[in-house]
Amino acid sequence: MHDDALLRVSSLAKSVPGGRELFRGLDLIARPGQLIAIVGESGVGKSTLLNILAGLDRPDAGQVAIEGVGLETLDEAALTRLRATRVGFVFQAFHVLPYLTLRQNIALPLALVSADRRSITARADAMLERVGLGTRGGGYARDLSGGELQRVAIARALVHRPAIILADEPTGNLDPETAAKILALFSTAVRENGVAAIIVTHSEAAAAIADIVLTLTATGLERRA
Amino acid sequence: MSLLSARLALGWLIGGEWRAHPARLALTAVAIAIGVALGFAVHLVNGSALSSFEGALRSVNGRADVQVNATTPFGFDEALYARVATATGVADASPVVVLRATAGTARFTLLGLDVIRAAQVTPSLIGIAPAGVDRRTDAAFDGQALFLSSAALRVLRVRPGDALTVAANGKATQLRVAGALPGVAEGQAIGVVDIATVQWRFGRLGRLDRIDVKQADGTSTAALTAILPRDATIGTSASDATRSDALSRAYRVNLDMLALVALLTGGFLVFSAQSLSVARRLRAFALIRTLGLPRNGIIATVALEGLAIGLIGSSLGLLLGYAVAYAALTRFGGDLGAGYFADGSVRLAFAPAAAVGFFLLGVFAAVAGSVLPARIAARVAPAAALRNAGDMIDPRTPVPWIPAAALIAVGGVAAQLPAIGGLPIFGFASMALILAGGIAGMPWLARTVLAPLARRSGRSVASDLAIHHLHGAPGQAATALCGIVASTALMIAMAVMVTSFRGAVDEWLGQILSDDLYLRVEGSSGFDPAAQAVLRATPGVAGIAFSRQVPLTLSADRPPVTLIARPVDARFVLLDKADRLPAGTIPIWLSEPAARLYNWKVGATVTLPLAGRYAVAGIWRDYARQQGAIVMRETDYSKATGDRTRTEAAITLQPGADPVRVEQALTARTPRGLARFVSIARPATLRRYALELFDRSFAVTYLLEGVAVLVGLAGVAATMSAQTIARTREFGMLRHIGVSKRQIVAMLASEGALLGLVGGIAGIALGGIMAQVLVHVINPQSFNWTMATRVPWGIVASVAGALVIAAAGTATLAGRRAIAADAVRMVREDW
């Protein structure tokens, strides 16, 4: 059978330096267009899991594969290359660089792998259009509201057509009304682009847009009904 | 993925940073520019002066292959000429008499030549009569004919055909300007007359000062050396170059080193500024690493910024350096006021190799100052940096001190090592190691100094916050302080050295200027015994000690020492003296530089280019003659040289005698021919004049000190404002919990003052240690004189005060700006 999983996690285990076990035997599969929310109490290891999925942290045991490529087989340079081409990120704190224009911020993942300024600008402008900031490309972060900054972050996460998007509390800094708009935009963008998205969140509203909601516990991920 | 493919992103990151903080980058580029400018300017001035001086030597020597030179101004017996001319390997030889001559108030070098011989050996010294003025073809053989270089024509204000009264060796005669010396380089005042005229008219019969030799191909000077008497020595173009280089080498190398210090300080300032910039951008770097930039991309980004700073700073520095060199040459002369190259004009010569060297040094300093913090940033885990909202400070983390202590200890060992080739290479290495050790020890010092304060509580909120921040993050304090500490330490070290030197010179002047009046004859032969007797009988004079100073060449590749004939009595203060001397030897007393330069010990028997056997009876302090001096009893001198004239006199007045009337009486009793060459001075005048000369010599050092202060204070301003801006969110949080704006400003002022104080303590302590290396290692190894340490407490206190005020002031200003925004926006600010 053809395996269309963009992300496959199996038997993952991780402890913190003090020896406390965060999770073990964790399995997860994410397919194109699928939006998975991971919820759980603070300190349970949600962000650590996200870092492991991104190749920014190493598990104690288990495997993570993105598009069939096992992260444990890759060295730091290859992991960096993989992040630059196949992974998109959305952060709670937006992380929009204040000294770059919004267009440059969105185009940053493309500029890390290509110097074709014209095509990069065209794709960034298209993404700006998609997130409703079509006329603001020359502006700077300080001109935007929180919701608008997160739109820029979503555009940046999608601009290089990644296989998966990892989002850490993407609405944690937004009011409920703005959060709802952002989540709708995020959901549409994920499905239209056929990427798999993993959202780590405390927000019920964020969990509500997901196709699958998983609760992280010490024994792994449990599917919520 | 390569860095090349990420070049667009790197360009955006660098460009964005530059647009956001142009002033910070401009300041760091200016720091590099100042360092490069000073180094390049000093090098240009030194190179131009040395090249002009060597040019002058070549002009006077007429580019002969080899010269046989007299070791004293009395020359050698002309019978030597016949032996040299017929020696193995000598193709031709030209006898020369060399005199310092005057005409009116103008001075020039007068050469007596045998035209026929000189035409074969030194054709550049042959005069040419100009067509239209003097068509006599026998002008060159005319005993009255004087040929002058273009510089001499200019200073003497004469033209071919004019008559001119020339004085030299205490005699005067009238000569006729017959033509020019087109072979002599521009700027060299030289006159050439037939040798017989010079010997006859200027009292040098039977004596020669030089024989210019044209060697047969492929021969050595060994045969010549074998036939030379004591009062002659062999000189070649190589030994001339070595001698002129030795004249000012230590001074030039020291100036180069001081100038490089400015560049080093610039490098520290770049390090400081880039460290803070990197700390501020830690999360930005973490983001782009998360997005896919490799670890070395961070290093490349910051290094490229450093490269750009270096390229801009170095380019500006070269332009500025050339302008400064031009201004310095015009204002101070080729030796920057030190008095090494008193004669001849100096033309600024561009030095492409030095320009490239200083350009690369500037770029290196900027890149090195950037790469170190970049490497630290690249090691930070991106996920942790992205989530971390504040500093990763743990006040319990111990601060290492061993690396700092090790560097200082190695520096201490290096200071004990001897000079290499007369240059204090290990001394400078020692200073660099001590400085590096001091800066490496800054976190430990900050923690140690602030620990007692941090344990105490009950002060104001502002003070408590300031002390705990600095105590908890001593690394940050050290980063902010390294530029300040470096410039303060170097400034204090230089100030202590100059104060010690000046104090030692002042004290020494007090010792040697113990008489009431001093009389001196310049540019003439001096007082003969009859004239001395007349002066001795002057009313009001209780005692008069005559002396004579002549140059004495001990080695062809070293500048001559000064031989001083004078009475040796109880007032002659010695640093060391021999208990007894070998039988049959004539006692001589060496100045401290002479003893160190020629490695002659007290009691040793030494050979001088004079008749007799000599032994070192003692060593005396002398700060006037860096190339060394030898004192000999008057009677011994007269026996050895036959010279009974004296050029100087120290006069003790009878009690109650009026100095002015005695001065007048002495002038009246001076022989008529000498009157215009005599000057009489009182000790206070001589002392003031000597100290003015000292200050002029160190004018460039004062300038470099001033620059170090400015760079240091600019460092304070830059680092304080950058740190304050980087902590905007912290201030926002403090305001949320009820700390007032005024309290935050007070906290920043306290932090600034504490930083300035810690930096001041460290800089002054380090400067004090480095000053010991300068005073007791570099100075003796460079200039061969020793001195005791004197601390300029006023300067030390002013520096400490200026640092505290500058740090507190800039921190307050930056703090006011940082808290101008509203508190809500400050905590929401991500970057």
TrEMBL record, chain A:
Ranges for domain ABC transporter: 7-225
Chain segments annotated as coiled-coil in the UniProt record: none
Domain of life, source organism: Bacteria
InterPro entries linked: AAA+_ATPase (IPR003593), ABC_transporter-like_ATP-bd (IPR003439), ABC_transporter-like_CS (IPR017871), ABC_transpr_LolD-like (IPR015854), MacB-like_ATP-bd (IPR017911), P-loop_NTPase (IPR027417)
Gene Ontology MF: a single term: ATP hydrolysis activity
Keyword Transit peptide: no
Record's GO cellular component terms: plasma membrane
Gene3D superfamilies, per the entry: P-loop containing nucleotide triphosphate hydrolases
Key words of the record: ATP-binding, Nucleotide-binding, Transport
Protein name: Putative ABC transport system ATP-binding protein
Organism (species): Sphingomonas aurantiaca
Lineage: Bacteria, Pseudomonadati, Pseudomonadota, Alphaproteobacteria, Sphingomonadales
TrEMBL record, chain B:
Subcellular compartments: Cell membrane
Entry's transmembrane regions: 257-278, 298-329, 349-378, 399-419, 425-446, 477-498, 702-723, 744-771, 791-815
Protein origin, superkingdom: Bacteria
Pfam assignment, any one: FtsX
GO process terms (BP): lipoprotein localization to outer membrane
Annotated keywords: Cell membrane, Membrane, Transmembrane, Transmembrane helix
Gene Ontology, cellular component aspect: plasma membrane protein complex
Domain (ABC3 transporter permease C-terminal) ranges: 258-380, 707-819
Membrane topology: Multi-pass membrane protein
Family note: Belongs to the ABC-4 integral membrane protein family. LolC/E subfamily.
Protein name as catalogued: Putative ABC transport system permease protein
Species per Swiss-Prot/TrEMBL record: Sphingomonas aurantiaca
